[in-house]
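tool_call: predict_structure(chain=1)
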Amino acid sequence: MSRTLRPLPAPGRFLRVDGVPLHVLTEGRGPVCVLSGGLGMAWFDWDAVAALLAPHRTVVRFDRPGLGLSAPAPEPPTLAAEADRIVHLLDALGHFGPATVVGHSLAGFHAEAFARRHPDRCAGLLLVDASIEDNPRPRLPRALRTAWAGGVAGALSAAGLPRALGPAARRLIGRASTVGTHPPHPWERAGYRTSRVARACVLENTTYPYQAAELAALRPDHPLPAVPVTVLAAYDGSETAGRLRWLERQRGLAAELGGRFAVAAPAGHLVMADVPESVARAVLDLSGTGHDATVADRP
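tool_result:
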């Protein structure tokens, strides 16, 4: 890839996990905390949160297959594979003890499944404006939907749309999902103009209802471990029925998981961009160190 597309040296390193070269970035010191973003997101979306946590935590960020700088996986994503990927990544890094996992949006499914499938490896759970599906029932066979999605991704790539429109689409989504003004990241153009990332985004979107159904099936027979849980909901300050209903659904998720409910405001869905301090404080509060460690509020 040319210098114009890679303005900076790639941070972190690449580790082969489950046969896929994953881009991984580890920073800081202390207990381990894994940050996993929502649908189609990359490691750099957590920059501000990681900077706040690094003095107090060993912060692990990674790109799921096909996203960011990671290579694509041979198979479409499943909930079990994504939950297990977190464990296998920690093993590859030499972190064999319990870790706190932070899951945003779609990755909230992955984080909760990680805790339920690997209770001995979970030290705490933070769900940031996490996805919620009350009664997921995908109507079409998974193989049919994923085959269709692969065809769509191929057609988009053949038409050159990721290269032409990918970075602009990413910026538009970012603006719609935040209440603040955030400049584009230097690595945004390098990733979101590729067919690799476009395909990964299409497949994550297509498999979303199936992952939701997997989680619903997992919950009855795989209880959460006795660890602290927080659900952190975004609130932009509006009083619309939809926004208030979303807050109540997030509160209900916290009650269902036996966890604490908190609100990050003013914030859009990309909470880590609008109020990274709220995310960092919620992580530290999980272990009771939030009042001992300093996480500055914005002026």
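agent: The radius of gyration is 18 Å. Proceeding to next step.
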